[in-house]
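Holo prediction. Input below; ligand is 2-hydroxyethylsulfonic acid.
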Amino acid sequence: MKDKIVFITGASSGIGKGCARKFASKGSDLILNARNVNALEALKIELESEYDIHIYLLPFDVCDREAIKTSLMSLPEKWRKIDVLINNAGLVIGMDKEHEGKLDEWDIVIDTNIKGLLAVTRLIVPGMVECGKGHIINIGSIAGEGAYPGGSVYCATKAAVKALSDGLRIDLVDTPLRVTNIKPGMVETNFSVIRFRGDKQTADRFYEGIHALSGDDIAETVYFAASAPAHVQIAEVLLMPTNQATSTISYKGNKK
Ligand code: 8X3
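Structure of the complex:
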């Protein structure tokens, strides 16, 4: 993946940061997006000093359609031919029942996980089609396989990521472009702290007794899909910890 340009949304932490590290270690140049400018700048300094690569920062909120447009239009010419788009930005707030949760929080989840992914895709993929090359890797979730207690809206958004990935694969079938949906199970990142509205202790308890996946584990699979030969399209990957079987069935008897 040397000299390829990889665009990652939500790159300041977790799976996005893991992907940034992995692709940087393989010689890819990176366009990194997130809302947290300071975290992005720190990551740029870290990776550019460690690897012989260049990083361009595009801080915006994927919910802000105008900001996405302005930012992408501001990209210097040499950064415009994006090889790999990793639609990673996503979140969940709360684990409320569908008839009890907060509509305002769900708006943020839906706007980020579905509409944000769609807006970024809509703006970047036409350039890939024009160049006759490109790979769109969406970070879906095991949550998109079926609903689980307290997850109804999040699960719905990840089911939407599956439909958007499948639909895009259909729409691009007559092109050399590839579309992959990576569907992680339990991954221990800041994601769960946000899920529990900032309560780190509850988030930690969620993963107690199971060796959860890390952002770096997911990045390995993302890289595997991206670096497959051009005629190989990895459509979907469902990956979870060894002691997880489904969204709701896991064995938490093993200490980390
Ligand atoms: C996160 C997976 O099962 O923790 O996408 O909700 S789960």
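Residues 141-143, 151, 184-186, 247 surround 2-hydroxyethylsulfonic acid (CB under 6 Å). That is the main takeaway for now.
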